[in-house]
Amino acid sequence: MSYFLYQLQFDAPVHFGATEPGGGLEQAGWEYPADTLFSALCCELALQQEFERLAHLVDKVERGAIRLSDLFPYAEIGQDTAFFLPKPVLLPKHGRPLAAMADLASVRKAAAARKAQKKARYLRVRELCSYAEAMKNGQVYVPDELPEFGSEMLAERVSCRGEEPLPYYVGSFSFAAGAGLYGIVWLENEEDAE
Questions:
Q1: In the predicted model, what is the mean pLDDT of the chain?
Q2: The most confident of 28-37, 56-65, 121-130, 138-147, by mean pLDDT
Q3: Which residues does residue 151 pair with via DSSP β-bridges, in sequence order?
Q4: C-alpha span between 122 and 145 (Å, rounded)
Q5: What is the tens place of the pLDDT at every residue in 9-52?
Q6: Residues facing 4 on adjacent strands
Q7: 80-86 and 122-124 strand pairing
Q8: Mean pLDDT of 125-150
Q9: Alpha-carbon torsion 183, 189, 190, 194, what sign?
Q10: Nearest Cα to 38, choosing from 2, 67, 63, 13?
């Protein structure tokens, strides 16, 4: 058994379609689930006419000998690579209620901290234990501020299929320098890494 961490960098804008209902071409995100990754790997192998390798991949995944994680963001921060995971949903123990605090300033500070904690979607991997401990003790944990992973863009395109050209919009995401997505692959047999 082996685990491999793969970091992906993107040289051009990407369009990962939005999965929520009503998501159109104009909506794009930078989150990439494991099932979509598996589908993309299968499509690429089929396009390259690598049907034997495609059958091998599908067989191994079906048997659980290869497991893919979702793709998560990472960013270079100084000399360090920071890996991020979705913030776990933990029910906090009830801490000190806001009404029991001494003054208005401390109530405002605690409310702002709770709002920042609730708003955070991702945590740096090194913060997970601190976050879980704070939640266990009924405390508020304010995570580190997220780096800028990149920016969304909207481009206008023209469909010339009908009699009259019709405009439409396509969303994309450009990763910042030093940022990208990473995934973890579990392999029953290390030889399958290739």
A1: 83
A2: 56-65
A3: 174
A4: 10
A5: 999 988 887 666 566 777 777 788 999 899 999 999 999 999 99
A6: 185
A7: antiparallel
A8: 83
A9: negative
A10: 67
Q: Side chain identity at 94, as an amino acid letter?
A: H
CB proximity list for 15: less than 8 A, separation 6 or greater: 25, 28, 170, 171, 172, 173
- State the number of CA atoms in the 13 A half-sphere of 76 facing the CB: 10
- What is the C-alpha separation between 92 and 21, in angstroms, rounded? 31
DSSP 178: T
| Better pLDDT: 115 or 4 | 4
The torsion angle over the Cα atoms of residues 31, 36, 38 and 40, rounded to 10 degrees, is -100
Higher-pLDDT residue of 156, 56:
56
**What is the share, in percent, of the chain residues with pLDDT greater than 90?**
39
Q: Which of 91, 98, 76 is nearest to 9 (CA)?
A: 76
DSSP string, 40-104: HHHHHHHHTT-HHHHHHHHHHHHHTSEEEPPBEEEEEETTEEEEEEEPP--PPPP---GGGSSSH
